[in-house]
Amino acid sequence: MQYKNRKFQISCDGGAATGKSTGAAMISKKYKLKFLTSYLLYKYANFIKNKYKPKNKIKILKKKFKRLNYKNLKKINLHSQKISKVSAIIAKESRIRSILKKYQIAFAKKNLNCCIEGRDISTKILPTSNVKFFFVCNLNTASLRRYKELKKRNPNLNLKDVKKTLRIRNILDKNRKNSPLLKHRDSVVIDTGKLGKKAMLNKMSRYVEKSLQN
Predict the structure, then answer these.
(1) Separation in Å, CA 88 to CA 144, 168, 173
(2) What is the pTM of this model?
(3) Mean pLDDT throughout 107-113?
(4) What are the pLDDT digits (tens) for 115-145?
(5) Residue closest to 115 by CA, chosen among 212, 15, 31, 207
(6) Taking the CB of residue 181, how many other CB atoms lie within 10 A of it?
């Protein structure tokens, strides 16, 4: 995809296990956009906090994120149930959110053609993004989806526990004071409980193509 020196950015928001990471990754690949998932940054922040147990967590997080190469996060296992639970808690901390927000904005400035997904991307990180998507999915479907994903790493995982974790995560995200999970007024709703991957990509693509023609 040739953008002829124009900036083209997509923002994707939604609750836990709504399929936004999958949708964002697919649309990024199709249109050759640099891709960043913000939740991975929060998981990494929690990983750093647990690994170093610093007296001043803000100082070490600033240092780590200042020199972070996003590609290297794939080399670290950040997808455990434990990390996910704690990441939801630290995501409420304004000073930590400020560090990660700065990193995401810098990423968007460096990569003018990009797609970022998270929970406050359209409202806080990329409010001027060309296309905004908001992913939704009923809790039962989302829980089963996350359960199958985590079961590969933890055979003893219980579906009931996964569902409880997702319910709590969504409550925390919607009700936190700092950058709560909100649907931007311009966002296109993508219901992954009703759409398969192919249909989801097709729907997203229609809106991207429409924006590219403007």
Answers:
(1) 19, 9, 8
(2) 0.90
(3) 95
(4) 999 999 999 999 999 999 999 999 999 999 9
(5) 31
(6) 21
